[in-house]
From TrEMBL, chain A:
SMART domains: AAA
ABC transporter domain boundaries: 4-228
PROSITE patterns attached to this UniProt entry: ABC_TRANSPORTER_1, ABC_TRANSPORTER_2
Pfam families: ABC_tran
Coiled-coil stretches: none
Keyword set, alphabetical order: ATP-binding, Nucleotide-binding, Transport
Keyword Transport: yes
Organism name: Neobacillus niacini
Name this polypeptide is given: ABC-type nitrate/sulfonate/bicarbonate transport system ATPase subunit
Keyword ATP-binding listed: yes
Species lineage: Bacteria, Bacillati, Bacillota, Bacilli, Bacillales
GO molecular function: ATP binding; ATP hydrolysis activity
TrEMBL record, chain B:
A biological-process GO annotation: transmembrane transport
Keywords assigned by UniProt, alphabetized: Cell membrane, Membrane, Transmembrane, Transmembrane helix, Transport
Organism annotation: Neobacillus niacini
Any Gene Ontology CC annotation: plasma membrane
Name of protein: ABC-type nitrate/sulfonate/bicarbonate transport system permease component
All residue ranges annotated as the ABC transmembrane type-1 domain in the record: 57-238
PROSITE patterns the record matches: ABC_TM1
Cited Pfam families: BPD_transp_1
Chief site of localization: membrane
Record-stated family: Belongs to the binding-protein-dependent transport system permease family.
Keyword Transcription regulation among UniProt keywords: no
Compartmental location: Cell membrane
Ranges annotated as spanning the membrane: 12-29, 63-85, 92-117, 123-142, 219-240
Keyword Transmembrane recorded: yes
Length: 262, 255
């Protein structure tokens, strides 16, 4: 049984069909990335899984249980860190668990130490850099008791160097604390570097356009970015996104060219 | 304290200069005392009349604090219910603004007719002047909660009360304190007005007696005491704010 099953989801806002017949699934402890141009309804997918919105049609199941309209079934890391400024780092990372009524202070302190935030346990978010804030937000998601973590373009607001640092950091932490991860990004390299599987979605209406198993062994390090095989894969995924674009309007086409390349 | 001295000496110097100027003008033009007393005369009255004025001061302070507490409670309850129940906000908010358009001076005799001369009409007057700034400030604070924070809380499964107590209430606290500061100074004014309705003692009574007997120096004592009392209330709220909201002091870059 898949950990998360999204089956034939349809969602429209008024006359706009945002998701038409979207289906995918994630296995336990798998790292899956959804990649697609901006405006392809990625946030809508999260809002549906998170239970903030309900689909017009289709099935969403977590470990076999229906979670349509049920909030709090997943743990979430948003695009902006969204840390509460009046709480210390420690109190912030405990927030997700606190909402579910299960706090583990010692584990939180241990994880903050592992994450290189030992000096900032009792600091307030305003004292942290952008990258550190995102680390705190990720640990908050890891400490939440839910088994599936959804990450919504968590590194898109960071600069290039910090982003690479964060990607490596995320992998190392994830390899220590294995969880099922659903990651959304619009960077092909980020997707290839991090995930086990990549799901490419098309824009308007949103559906799965292609799926790739990423063959690289773990643990991975940054030398992978220059690997021949990696570049070949990057080309393949880029083409699949571009083909998606050519079927649609010119705007979508332009979007695919704006993808980051080092 | 050092900060106060560094920043505070300019206005204090200006104030002293004004007093000196006032004293000189009164002395030169020989204005009669009942028209405009000299500052030294007012000072004399404060010192010599202190024992008889003191009970009035205490009475007004007490009623102002009581009215302020009731007004704050009402203001917060109104704000929270308006925030949590949208249909109440839509139907009641315009009426709230209307309630502020009725001058308290006009309302006061009505309150006496309905509730007599006791404590109740006085508390109502102060509450009416106090609650509105708090309600508006709190509602504003609740509205300013960033969407990203709210979205995270909802995705993480926060219930309505968790959303309120863990996010919206603490987020609105700085705004609420802005409202409290305004209300604190209003409460003294409200207390004095309420005493004009009829009371045995209080700054309002003292003022009425003083002006009807042309003791202008006493009127100035009353005005001065109202100002000092308001300032004191304000300072207490600022101190409370500093204590409760330490997180905003460093510029408050909220993300």
């Amino acid at each position: 049984m898949s950990h998360l099953l999204v089956d034939h989801i349809v969602k429209s806002f008024g006359p706009n069909e945002v998701l038409s017949d979207l289906s995918f699934s994630i296995e336990k402890e798998e790292f899956v990335t959804i990649i697609g141009p901006s405006g392809s309804g990625k946030s809508t997918i999260f809002n549906l899984i998170g239970g903030i919105m309900t689909p017009d049609k289709g099935i969403i199941q977590l470990e076999g249980n229906n979670i349509i309209g049920k909030r709090g079934s997943i743990s979430f890391m948003p695009q902006t860190p969204s840390l509460l400024p009046w709480r210390t780092v420690l109190q912030n990372v405990l927030l997700g668990a606190e909402l579910q009524g299960k706090k583990d202070r010692d584990k939180a302190i241990e994880m903050l130490h592992k994450a290189g935030l030992a000096d900032y346990v009792h600091a307030r978010p305003e004292e942290l850099s952008g990258g550190m804030k995102q680390r705190v937000a990720f640990i908050r998601a890891l400490l939440s008791p839910q088994s599936l973590i959804c990450l919504d373009e968590p590194f898109s607001a960071l600069d290039e160097l910090t982003r690479l640092e964060m990607q490596k950091w995320l992998l190392s932490i994830w390899e220590d604390y294995r969880r099922t991860v659903l990651f959304v990004t619009h960077s092909i390299e980020e997707a290839l570097f991090l995930s086990d599987r990549i799901i490419v979605i098309s824009v308007k209406p949103t559906k799965v356009a292609a799926e790739f198993e990423v063959p690289f062994n773990r643990p991975r390090d940054e030398s992978l970015f220059l690997d021949e095989e990696f570049l070949k894969w990057k080309r393949t995924v880029t083409y699949s996104l571009k083909n998606e674009g050519s079927d649609n309007d010119g705007e979508a086409n332009r979007r695919t060219y704006s993808f980051r390349s080092i | 304290m050092n900060f106060l001295i560094r920043k505070g000496w300019r206005p204090i110097a200006v104030l002293i200069l004004l007093f000196i100027l006032w004293e000189i003008i009164v002395k030169i033009t020989k204005v009669p005392d009942w028209l405009l007393p000299a500052p030294t005369m007012i000072l004399n009255e404060i010192i010599s009349g202190w024992t008889s004025f003191y009970p009035d001061l205490v009475s007004t302070s007490k009623i102002a604090v009581e009215g302020f507490l009731v007004g704050t409670t009402v203001g917060l309850v109104v704000a929270v219910s308006l925030h949590l129940v949208p249909w109440i906000r839509d139907s009641v908010y315009p009426l709230l603004i209307l309630s502020q358009n009725v001058p308290i001076i006009v309302l006061a005799p009505l309150l006496v007719i309905w509730f007599g001369f006791g404590l109740l009409p006085k508390i109502i007057v102060i509450t009416l002047t106090c609650f509105f700034p708090i309600t508006v400030a709190a509602l504003d604070g609740f509205k300013q909660v960033p969407y990203s924070h709210k979205h995270y809380m909802l995705m993480a499964g926060a219930g309505k009360s968790q959303l309120f107590w863990k996010l919206e209430w603490p987020y609105a606290l700085p705004s609420i304190f802005s409202g409290l500061k305004i209300s604190a100074t209003y409460s003294v004014m409200g207390a004095v007005i309420s005493e004009w309705l009829g009371a045995e003692k209080g700054i309002g009574v003292y003022m009425t007696l003083a002006s009807s007997s042309f003791r202008t120096d006493k009127v100035f004592v009353a005005i001065l005491s109202i100002m000092v009392l308001s300032l004191l209330f304000f300072a207490v709220i600022v101190a409370a704010e500093k204590y409760f909201i330490r997180w905003q002091s460093k510029g408050g870059n909220v993300e």
